[in-house]
Amino acid sequence: MKIAINYLGEVINLIKEKKIEIDYIKYPSISDTNLDEIKDIMTNNNINMLYHGLLLKKYGITDITSDTFIEDINIDINKEAIKISKTNGISIHIGQDKIDASMHTEEELIKIVSKNIQFLKDTFPNLEFYSFENKENTKNKIIMDSNFISKCIYLNDCNFLLDISHAAIASKNIGMDFYEYLDKLPLDKIYEIHLNGWNFDGENASSHIKITKEGYDALNYVLQYSNPKIITIEYGAFLEGKKLSYIKDFKEKNMTVRNEILEQISKVKEICR
Fold it and tell me: How high is the pLDDT of residue 243?
């Protein structure tokens, strides 16, 4: 299994200081995606990049359930980003939590998803993986349903990107036991796992914090039923209760971030041995 971690300033520092050994830095395709930055990171640190998502023609996060998915994708820049980063695949979300999803039926959603996945396979051919990630909070609750997610993956013969914290939060949102929810996901189709911590404050949930015992326990459980190629430590959206943008923050030396990165990489490697 390969180990990846989010792009953070302290990750770069630790690589340069030869304090960590990882296989990939995960680089998300958001509005300020910078192809020159990807080149510089790879060249200056002798590290592979893992490009996650697909850049849209306007700001937003890619969602395979979107009615306008095909017209929204910026094809040329994504082809270039995949080529430059040497990421031999595509990974995007099943659903989105920040927009109002149209209230389609399950049958309608399956048709939309299948059409969009075929478009990806035709437009970006001959890739090693086409992986789709479960989301934690969608307007249309069908999209969080583990059976629906499994249908999307199996019917279209593609890969699953399991986000463990998303699964924990989604299971609570739909009133299901966490491990029962995990069991109904297509674990045998996992290509990549996103691992990060989460917590609940009443009805509100936070994720992408330091991995907790619950996260490591869930990873151990999932690995009994899957054989992922990549484990991505998706850490960096919150620090000490403060919400951060993990690309723009953490550029300066931060010992809390540094120590938490070292601890998490060590524990994930221990589990994956």
Answer: 52
